[in-house]
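Weekly puzzle thread! Below is a chain. First person to post its structure in token form gets bragging rights.
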Amino acid sequence: MKRIVLAVFCAAMAAGMLFAGGKKDGPAAGGDASLTNITSRGKFVLGLDDAFPPMGYRNEDNEIVGYDVDLAKEVAKRIGVELVLQPIDWDAKEQELNTGEIDCIWNGFTITEERKANILYTPPYLKNAQVVVVKGNSPVNSLKDLTGKTAGTQAGSSSVDAIDEAPEFKSSLKEVIEYKDFLTALMDLDVGGIDAVVIDLVVANDNINRSGKDFRILKETLGEEEFGIGFRKNDKALADKVWETLLAMAKDGTVAKIATKWLGADISIIGK
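Winning reply:
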């Protein structure tokens, strides 16, 4: 009887080891299947604000275009998957990512310590700053000149964080109005609804250059920052593959070509 029990026990142990060995590299054993999930599905879903030029926005034909879009298209092509552009409510971007609706946030996504607690970022790929835009004929020439005036910005953006992190400046303002996107805030500035817009430098420069509006950017800034691509915390394999591909694109000149097209010069910091 003991021999029978021992034989059954050994057989069970062997089967268990074989089963465990077969699942060793799978997600159930703690492995990261984020890259294989993308390649097997054949699609890479990018979440973005489709009103954030020049990073990602809709052109006259209602197509989503931009600097980040072109970078992502080339990355997806080299990985061998289809890029799916998914416009999202920027104020709910982290929720969209963590519920699996999108695979990454790639749209001038500022790296902050607070966000890093919940987001896995790539290294930074572009430098940026938070600036203040006013009308050309405005008497405002400094942050101090905005005392008692109304400023607008985009809800859920790093511009909101920049204002919060400058309590003296914020308390000097009469009001801070948060809009759905920066373009709406700039339109309100143009018609005199607000006195200034706190905005990303790359967006401000692009809007002024393309729209021809009589806007100007104050010399004082509310701080410098960097853009990164955001992934779910456990999706390291996918994040690493995207960054590895961008490094190869920087090395062969593709990034420089895309940056010159959208930003006027190769100001990328990928691999630098």
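Puzzle host: Confirmed. Bonus trivia for everyone else. Confidence is low (pLDDT under 50) at residues 1-30.
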